[in-house]
Amino acid sequence: MKSIRLILFITTVILGISSSMVVHAEEKDDSAARMALYKKTEAVTDIPWEYLAAIDQFERQIHDNPKEGRVTAIKADPLFWTGTPIDMPSAWFPDGWGSDGNGDKNIDINHDEDVLWSLGQYIKSYGTTSDDIKIALWNYYKRDLTVQTIMNNAEVFKKFGTVSLKERSFPVPLSANFSYRSTWGDARGFGGRRIHEGTDIFANYGVPVQSTTYGVIEMKGWNRYGGWRVGIRDIFNIYHYYAHLQSFSEDLKVGDVVQPGDVIGGVGASGYGPPGTSGKFPPHLHYGMYQDNGENEWSFDPYPYLKRWERMEKNN
User: Fold this and answer.
1) Which of 18, 25, 27, 24 is nearest to 300 (CA)?
2) Which of 16, 21, 157, 297 is most buried as measured by Cβ atoms within 10 A of its Cβ?
3) Residue numbers in the chain where pLDDT is lower than 50
4) What does the alpha-carbon distance between residue 216 and residue 133 come to, in Å, rounded to a whole number?
């Protein structure tokens, strides 16, 4: 078992997700400067700031934090920027979308204002409605999950009016009787040999299950492994998986924007069979976290984050 866990750990590091990376991404706060750039670009391009913020937020998770001297992390595709490989004069190929955003008569792929202005103009060429923006994003990224993540992030930013969204919650109330330990990577047998992609938090039936983060309900319903489950995609390209629920919160639906502490359901023992199967194991919440890097998505150990969020709540 130790060798399996070592292999899993090495795999997650190779894929680019370590605890320090996620924590670093969450803790960096340059929100005031970012908001100023987004609002300025909205004023001159008519693209709502929350979409520009959502694109930047997505790319911050792909490229880590912005390079020195920059506020945004948007790394424009050179082919889109010039209309041809970057080492050839862009004047020969007018179909690229790079343009001067700050009026210095220089088109710089590494300058925030040039990048945001150019991005806004590119999107505006499709239109300014939500559907228009969605089409523009798909034609650039060519990936449905990426487009949906950006659109979700835009909804979160629009609702809360800021990109500074740092709060987190433990997934069950600290006043409840609960217990958990690190079980990520343990063997599981139902449905074939596989690993446990999460942490089990044991609690009584009906104990409220809370969103740990800001995000959008991406999935709700039955899964033969997870029973009644909810999936939330957060603004850090992380999918949070809440499984074995007894029930869902009233009126909860796919597309809802949630924040830390919002109740999404209750602890149960559903799963391991067709819809309605329950009681094959003690009641608990299975909590999983999956990172997306714009190309692939993989599970990583949520236990360190659960311990951190539990400590944060206890100290508040």
Assistant:
1) 18
2) 157
3) 1-27, 86, 88-94, 192
4) 18
Give the span between the Cα atoms of 23 and 208, in whole angstroms.
26
Length of the chain: 316
Q: Is 128 left (phi over 0), alpha (psi -120 to 50) or beta?
A: alpha
Asked if 74 and 89 count as a contact pair (C-beta separation under 8 A), the reply is no
pLDDT score recorded for residue 5: 45
Site of tokens 């987004």: 38
Alpha helices, H only, 237-302: none
Contact 186, 196 (CB under 8 A): yes
Query: What pLDDT does 101 receive?
Result: 63
pLDDT of residue 311: 95
Strands 263-267 and 227-234: unpaired
The pLDDT assigned to 128 comes to 93
DSSP 125: T
Backbone angles phi, psi at 49, to 5 degrees: -55, -35
- Rounded Cα distance between 316 and 308, Å, is 13
Tokens of 155: 């909804």
In angstroms, the first-to-last Cα distance of the chain is 37
Look up residue 277 and give its amino acid.
T
- DSSP per position, 188-199: E-TTSSEE--SE
Is 215 exposed, middle or buried, given 0-12, 13-18 or 19+ CB atoms closer than 10 A?
Answer: buried
- Domain-by-domain residue ranges, the chain? 29-160, 179-315
Q: CATH: 3.40.50.1240, 2.70.70.10, 2.60.40.420, 3.40.50.300. Which one for 179-315?
A: 2.70.70.10
Q: Which residues pair with 298 in a beta bridge?
A: 291
User: CA separation (Å) from 121 to 14, 115, 175?
Assistant: 36, 10, 51
Burial of residue 2 (CB within 10 Å: 0-12, 13-18, 19+) is: exposed
pLDDT at 197: 77
Structure tokens at 113: 């204002």
